[in-house]
Amino acid sequence: METLSRRGRTARAVATVVAGALLLAGTLWGQDDDFPFGPFRMYSTAPGPDDDAPDTRVEGVDATGRTVVLTEANSGLRRAEIEGQQRAYVDHPARLAQVARAYADRSPDAAPLTEVRIVIRWTGVEDARPTGTSSDEVIARWVAR
Amino acid sequence: MRWLFEPVPKGRIAAFRTLVYLFVAADLVVFTPWVRHHADTPGELYQPLLVGRLLHLPTPTPLLVHGIFWLLLGASVAAATGRAPRLLGWTVFALYFEWMVVAMSYGKVDHDRVGLLVALAALATVGRARHGDPERTEAGGWALRVTQIAVICTYFLAAWAKLRFGGVDWVTSSVLARAIIRRGTDLADLIALVPHLLIVAQAGIIAFELASPLIFALPQRWKNRAVAFFGSFHLATFATITISFLPHLVAMTSFLPLEKVRPVCWARGFAARRRGQVREHERPVV
Predict the structure, then answer these.
(1) H or E segment at A72?
(2) Which ipTM did the prediction report?
(3) Out of B40, B142, B169, whose CB is closest to A105?
(4) Which of A136, B36, B64, B139 has the most CB atoms less than 10 A away?
């Protein structure tokens, strides 16, 4: 059997305790920013059983007047990434010009976007089940000048 | 202490190593190709994580992103062969870690990677290991044990995070209904119609996450069953909201006696039998 030296054991034990302590601290006090030691907060919020559910999309209007839904494939940005920076887009809608640029870089053959907006579709929920009703809300809009 | 270093056959390390490094290569090309799209994302949208700021990691450029992609692809395929395990192991770990910082620095952090990152760091500390080698190794035992701990932390600490961010009301909240509205499949839409089913599912999720550390107290046969149960949970998650947790599942194979999975040997044996060769125990007794 291949055994570890005393030093090898100690170094590994210390690394285990340090990494474990960081992960525990991240869970107790950390945020996503502390990756890889942040909290495992996927689906950890508790919306009320009758709270409407937001379904966010990013859409653009191109020079031909066509509405295009911006996706990971045509803009290189994931929807969740837009949501993660949502506050910044709402406070500074001009930031959406960067999304139009990302679309132009990823889809060079497509007509350029003259408008980009973040839209939330609010779907009704009752007793923790979707009701099927919905309404749209534009929370940030950038228009090319 | 003895538990942390419980020796395992080197063949298990070799198998786990091949699986993990091949997954890294597949992850780059097949499972998360969107990371590469950040080569074209304007630098203004880059919001580096704390670790990126501490290490002064550069803002991704096309050269950086494509450079890491090709280097990592080559290094991970080479590492899957088991050669130069420390040099290639640390190279893959460093490059994949930076790849993850690029992936997570645009506003969304995924939570399915910790087990895999721990596996990559720990595997780099284990020396050479040949497929099928029955000799036991304490360094390899530690590498698998810390990967297992990271996998179980992903469940147990996720329950803790639910209590921190959602409170006990999480169990009766509409969190799963929200998930289904956002990204539900047709199957999920059907499930969502059943009264109280989502609430029962939420109670079940938090119960199994809190109970997950019990896997360490189980004998191997039951460990295999527990892994199958965890796998079925992720299968159900994928079937309903298309979230796979694949990197986590790869790390979870650290619980299994992988040295028994010998696809190359099986293929060789099959080919030999097709050529008419028979092994000693297959000869008729006369």
Answers:
(1) helix A72-75
(2) 0.89
(3) B40
(4) B139
